[in-house]
């Protein structure tokens, strides 16, 4: 047994991001529906000793326009309480691409059409990214949606005040691929299993950084029937010079046998 590293952060906040009245329904798969998977992933994070909360993306476009400011205020408040903070932002929902290949987060299915655009039940990923980039702490964003890999199609430029903080992404699928829920080989189920498998036992060479977590999730995936490794890792902004020496470590905060 290889014991987990201690979390280097004084506080870790997991923010589950999901559409209000998301309309997830029972899928055709044998495992569970999307709402159950969403909460099971958050519960797995909670077993790490992390503070877990849910933020809903409003159906009202006027309220939704304030989401970036709302997240920035929440992130600023967290950093104010502790100078050593990690925020994990987990989005589960639909994703699509506009005509220019930009990632859009949508309430409904992946096929955008004029009727969907007319409902206003969508927003650009870049609106969320602006809040992430502005956070004065490390942020790991996990995107569980179709076309998630498009989140880094155009890498954002770093801003001088935030260069020393890491902004990394774990993406369920490449930009031109789809994902779903309710099957044992899909992202949510495999993320949850990887988190539980590594909560109390890390294999040799595993250090708990986002790249290693992606490898762990992909290993779970390929062991499933019809499973295939598709999870990606990247940086949202150019990593600072000390990134290799001070990586994000997603590790349990309370392990009884570690002092």
Give the overall silhouette.
Answer: globular
Number of helices: 7
| Topology pattern, helix = H, strand = E | EHEHHEEEHEHEEHHE
Number of domains: 1
| N-C termini distance | 17 Å
Task: Name the strands of the widest sheet in spatial order.
Answer: 2-1-3-7-8-9
Beta percentage is 15-25%
Largest sheet: 6 strands, mixed
Structural class, judged by helices and strands?
alpha/beta
Number of strands: 9
- Give the overall average pLDDT: 85
Q: Cα-atom Rg, whole angstroms?
A: 18 Å
CATH class: Alpha Beta
Q: In CATH terms, what is the architecture?
A: 3-Layer(aba) Sandwich
CATH topology: Rossmann fold
* Spans where pLDDT lies below 50 across 5 or more residues: 25-31, 255-259
Helix content: 25-40%
Protein name: Peptidase C14 caspase domain-containing protein
GO molecular function: cysteine-type endopeptidase activity
InterPro entries: Pept_C14_caspase
GO biological process, one term: proteolysis
Q: Can you give a write-up of this model?
A:
- The chain is 28% helix and 20% strand.
- By secondary structure, it is of the alpha/beta class.
- A hairpin with a 5-residue loop joins strand 4 and strand 5.
- It starts with 10 loop residues before the first strand and ends in a 24-residue tail after the last strand.
- It comes from Endocarpon pusillum.
- One of its GO terms (molecular function) is cysteine-type endopeptidase activity.
- It holds the Pfam family Peptidase_C14.
């Amino acid at each position: 047994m290889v014991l987990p590293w201690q979390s280097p952060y004084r506080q870790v906040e997991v923010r589950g991001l999901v559409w209000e009245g998301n309309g997830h329904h029972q899928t055709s798969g044998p495992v569970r529906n999307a709402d159950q998977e969403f909460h099971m992933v958050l519960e797995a994070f909670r077993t790490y000793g992390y503070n877990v909360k849910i933020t809903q993306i409003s159906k009202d476009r006027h309220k939704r326009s304030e989401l970036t400011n709302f997240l920035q205020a929440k992130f600023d408040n967290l950093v104010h309480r502790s100078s050593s903070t990690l925020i994990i932002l987990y989005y589960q929902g639909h994703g699509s691409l506009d005509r220019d290949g930009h990632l859009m987060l949508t309430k409904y299915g992946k096929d955008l059409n004029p009727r969907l655009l007319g409902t206003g039940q969508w927003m650009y990923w870049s609106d969320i990214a602006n809040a992430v980039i502005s956070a004065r702490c490390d942020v790991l964003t996990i995107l569980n949606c179709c076309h998630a890999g498009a989140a880094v199609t155009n890498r954002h430029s770093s801003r001088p005040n935030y260069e020393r903080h890491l902004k990394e992404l774990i993406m369920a699928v490449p930009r031109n691929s789809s994902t779903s829920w309710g099957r044992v080989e899909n992202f949510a189920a495999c993320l949850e299993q990887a988190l539980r498998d590594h909560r109390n036992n890390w294999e040799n060479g595993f250090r708990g950084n986002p790249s290693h977590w992606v490898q762990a999730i992909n290993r779970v995936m390929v062991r499933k029937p019809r499973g295939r490794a598709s999870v990606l890792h990247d940086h949202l902004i150019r990593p600072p010079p000390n990134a290799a020496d001070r990586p994000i470590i997603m590790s349990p905060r309370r392990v009884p046998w570690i002092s």
